[in-house]
């Protein structure tokens, strides 16, 4: 696969980075934030973002077993707690939008585990990583080249 372009307007990149950083900070749980962005990146097949965020997750102490089982989180009940599972369900619903909207039960499940402010930051984070995934996949940016 050939990279289409590496060009990304610096102002756009700064704005997208600011949204991501604000959402992560507001969520207040760096390990969960990385699980969310990794799961969205898996769904979107974004190798660049997976490569970057797997490394960041490890830096936040997320163990390999959790990373290995993230794609099958629904079947790995003993590995992810209910709060994480609610966040991952919301991540999938916002990322895929199968029915054109986020189902009420998925939203309500997340709302039971996050106050309104943290839920807003969680949704912002999901939207931000989906934007990044589309920017990277749309340009066919390969993994690698990320330096923390």
TrEMBL record:
Residues 10-92 form the Carboxymuconolactone decarboxylase-like domain. It comes from the Bacteria. InterPro entries: AhpD-like, AhpD_core, CMD-like. This is Carboxymuconolactone decarboxylase family protein. It comes from Streptomyces lanatus.
């Amino acid at each position: 696969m050939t990279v289409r372009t590496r060009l990304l307007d610096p102002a756009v990149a700064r704005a997208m980075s600011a949204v991501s950083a604000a959402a992560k900070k507001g969520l207040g749980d760096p390990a969960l934030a990385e699980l969310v962005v990794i799961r969205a990146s898996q769904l979107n097949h974004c190798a660049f973002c997976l490569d970057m965020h797997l490394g960041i997750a490890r830096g936040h102490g997320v163990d390999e077993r959790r990373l290995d089982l993230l794609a099958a989180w629904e079947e790995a009940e003993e590995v992810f707690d209910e709060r994480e599972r609610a966040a991952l369900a919301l991540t999938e619903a916002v990322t895929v939008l199968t029915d054109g909207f986020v189902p009420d039960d998925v939203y309500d499940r997340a709302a039971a585990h996050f106050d309104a402010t943290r839920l807003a930051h969680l949704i912002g984070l999901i939207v931000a990583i989906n934007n990044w995934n589309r920017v990277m996949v749309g340009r066919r940016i390969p993994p690698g080249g990320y330096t923390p």
